[in-house]
Amino acid sequence: MNPYDEFDLEAGLDAAIAAAAEPDVPAPPPWRETRVVGKPLPRIDAYERVSGTAVYASDVILAGMLHAAVLRCPHAHARVTRVDATRARRMPGVRAVLTPDSPGADIPWYGGQKGPLSRLLDRHCRFQGEEVAAVAADTPYQAHDALAAITVEYEVLPFAVSIDAALDKNATPVLDGPGNRAGDPRVVERGDIASGFAAADVVVEETYSTATEIHVPIELHGCVAKWDGPSLTVWDSLQGVFPAQATLARALGLPIARVRVIGPYMGGGFGAKLDTGKYAVIAALLARETGRPVRLFMTREDTITSIGNRPGVKSTVKIGATRDGTLTAIEFRCIGSGGAYSAGGTGGVDWQPLDLYRCPNVRTVSENVFMNAGPERPFRAPGHPQGAWALEQALDTLASRLNMDPVALRLQNFTEVSQARPGQPRYSTTGLRECLTEGARTFGWDDARKAGQRGALTASARGAERGGAVRGGAERHAAERRGVGMAAGMWRGGAGGPPSTIIVRLLADGSANLNMGASDLGTGTKTVMAMVVAEELGVPLERISVEHADTGTTQYTGPSGGSKTVPTEAPAVRAAALAVKRELLALAGAQLQVDPATLSIEQGAIVGAGEGGPRLKVTEVQALRRRGVLVGVGIREPDTHGLAVNPFGAHFAEVSVNTRTGEVRVLRYVAAQESGRVMNLLTYRNQVVGAVTQGAGLALTEERVLDEVHRGRVLTRNLYEYKVPTALDVPPAPECVAIDPHDEVCNTAGAKGLGEPALIPSAAAIANAVADAIGVHIVDSPITPARVLEALARRS
Amino acid sequence: MASSHDSDHKCACAGGLSRRGFLTSVGTGAIGAVATAHMASAATADAPVETIDAGAHVTVALLVNGTTHRLAVEPRWSLLFVLRERLGLTGAKAGCERGECGACTVLVDGETRYACMTLAVEAEGHEITTIEGLMHGEELGPVQRAFVEHDAMQCGYCTPGQVMAVEGLLRTTPSPTLDQIREGVSGNLCRCGTYAHIFQAAERAAELKRG
Ligand code: FES
Ligand code: FES
């Protein structure tokens, strides 16, 4: 992996379709009955997480450890003309200072097509929050004192922090130019949209936009770095330790084998922690200079300006359909900005219009613009919620123009074929139809949609209102309008695929250890994988330990992201457990002098076929006792089915809108998801609940605001201004309908990814419910009270 | 234990610091920032106030999870910093150090409080409970058990703070309604979005606590 390139989320998503050599051991048959997999089991590391004993990177305290802090450019665009750290270096507790003149400051950073675009500490700062200097001191307080004592002189340069400003003909290029367009637009086309629109009875066209969102994992970005002579160890808060290992080795000119990255617990990432950042290289440089371990955690403000974001996107959708709701053409144009260095402002946005619904004539155009703001970074289903926000609202408008139920409209255009992929392969399974019908049934969609009820309060809304009497009142009732809405979505990834190498060890007492490179982001990866081991080896979960996410002790895998962790790791874990099982049965067969093929494992014992057959406790297998361990290695082989593997979902929301205050509350929510096999119903539901919460944020509260007029700075640099949903902003009890299509071909675990697909339709479902309540679509996210009131004023 | 406090070390927790004043002294740490040794509250603002250098140390005795710890602190050090970095109690997390996220939530005299917005010197003379203090040896307390049962966590980084928020709520409101629970944890962000499971866990914890 090239550390100077943004982690390419889309690379590998289609690995499932790649041709592959036949593996040595034939793939195991799909599970039919399972004993452990699928059950709603509490996570195996819940104790550590609720007791405070889990050690996150930010909890690592080493003897003699110093604390580092980073000075950042306060301007949207500036050139550093002078840095004077004389005073800072003399301050109490200060042990080292890095400036753009220090060794290592010129390490290349941010990859472009023609090489690096910037340096670790670069004098040319292209967005507010770029790194200028750093300090290591005995306490974090002293480090921050020292930052304040560094004098930096800047030549402030003209900036562009909006797409319009960046495209202005007089705009200063953010990079080398000319202009600020990041290459040619991506154009994808099939069929002929002109004839498609000509064949349509109804055509709708509308423009939508989503605000830029910030990831805001609650554990900040940062690490502890420590040298032992030529070897570097870094404890980092990451979604994957192996990309970080490669990045650090490359940046510091070390062999990969001399860099160890450790990160078994991490406090949230959502895409922002797929790889490490400048902070780790800075910490390593400071640690090398001082000969002491260095901790560097960014401030919350700095993560908001500098770590990355989900780019806001403006999309224009034009859809044509015949009377019966059959789509005849979709034209989709979008434009977005990946900020200063990343050209990926609209990556993934076009996938919903291209692949979700059957439509022979589609044209999408995606344009990207550079501007002086923090670079884009993959954020949970990159581009997809933005695309769904536009497409699903447009379909809602189309449904009402056709006088058709929104669910029926989507069912009418259901497809089993991935039209966006070359050769249009079938999906291994698609549960979209069941998500739509079962979701609607659970929600009570038909009743909720009955004429005469919309725009008024339903019984359930009244109930919720009574429950919330502390904040309500009779007057409030009169202003409340209720509405229901739905949306569907699919995730482009979710298939999983190589690489992953797993080791399972069976120990002398019959307990087991799972050794896995992958990080557990809180999705329950460790638990699900331990369940796979339990399933195959018959070892109870309490007797399985897991070590993971440590480049020094576990094996290579990609970062946990792209909703590919379960479909990547579970087949490899299964293969490793089966390797152990094969060896165990072979040894037992030799001991019992029977054919191993007649043996199986039942509750800690090896049993032969038939009544009164041989029976041997696992702990009585002599070879296991003698060796003390049996080791099985599992490798994630490529899938060879040639099918498209994608997860699907359909979401249903009921909202109330206060027409006096503009406030929107989500009262009720049903999310139906199809992600192949449900591996653990409890953590599955939790993923869906979490996605709905984040969707509510996109729909209602989250917006990074830049000062476009005066200084180009970020105006939402803290969590009061940048509003992550709180417990008061979410539906109190979202319901998850888990559709299991019994996918026996997608991979040997039968599971697809879940975390991202569950987010994709959520904001659009809420937006459609708001439109149902007030009779007008709010096309821009977030749906703030001000926007609701404006829309109502426009309507009347 | 409490007797070890100097009688003149009056804590101004109730009066509270203004948020702005706190930020000046702790924030990005302008040099020469001063903090008052005894954190005089607004009510005593007219009285002469002793000021000391940001870098100077004072001795405090902190009663944490039933044990008194005597240590030298800078007056500007937050309770969170002292708990984590000086006492090694890393259960309380740092998510913003500005009173925005709730990851640092602890109980001070049984009430939930952001440890990042509390100075260590302010906390003297008060009973501090961290997540480590909810354990009975290696056994989880009832709120923690309920969180496990209902999978009220994902990454787990906000979780100690959420557990403390629920613990604090149940100490004053043993049988909370859903709305009281939502209010009770509304100062604790969960970016993984597990709120619905936290609500269930809080209800279950109330049950477990009632026995
Ligand atoms: S760390 Fe205290 S509120 Fe965020
Ligand atoms: S569990 Fe991750 S922030 Fe709450």
Would you kindly provide a written description of the structure presented here, covering whatever features stand out?
The complex is a heterodimer of chains A (796) and B (211). Chain A has three domains: 3-56 and 494-635, Aldehyde Oxidoreductase, domain 4, CATH 3.30.365.10; 61-166, Aldehyde oxidase/xanthine dehydrogenase, a/b hammerhead (Aldehyde Oxidoreductase, domain 3), CATH 3.90.1170; 313-493 and 643-795, Aldehyde Oxidoreductase, domain 4 (2-Layer Sandwich). Helix content of chain A is 27%, strand content 23%. Chain A has a seven-stranded mixed sheet with strand order 3-7-1-14-11-12-13, with helices on both faces. A five-stranded mixed sheet of chain A has the order 9-17-16-15-10. In chain A, α10 (384-402) packs parallel to α20 and α16 packs parallel to α17. Residues 1-20 and 458-473 of chain A have low confidence and may be disordered. In chain B, 31% of the residues lie in helices and 15% in strands. Chain B is elongated and about 50 Å long. Chain B has three domains: 4-45; 52-133, Ubiquitin-like (UB roll) (Roll); 135-211, Orthogonal Bundle (DNA polymerase, domain 1). Chain B is α+β, with helices and mostly antiparallel strands. Chains A and B meet through α1, α3 and α19 of A and α2, α4, α5, α6 and α7 of B. Bound molecules: FE2/S2 (inorganic) cluster (2 copies). Residues 94-97, 99-104, 114, 116 of chain B line the site of one FE2/S2 (inorganic) cluster.
Strand content of chain A: 15-25%
Which ligands appear in the coordinates? FE2/S2 (inorganic) cluster
- Which CATH class of the largest domain in chain B? Alpha Beta
The number of domains of chain A: 3
The strands making up the biggest β-sheet of chain B line up spatially as 4-3-7-5-6
* Unreliable spans of chain B: 1-44
Mean pLDDT of chain B: 83
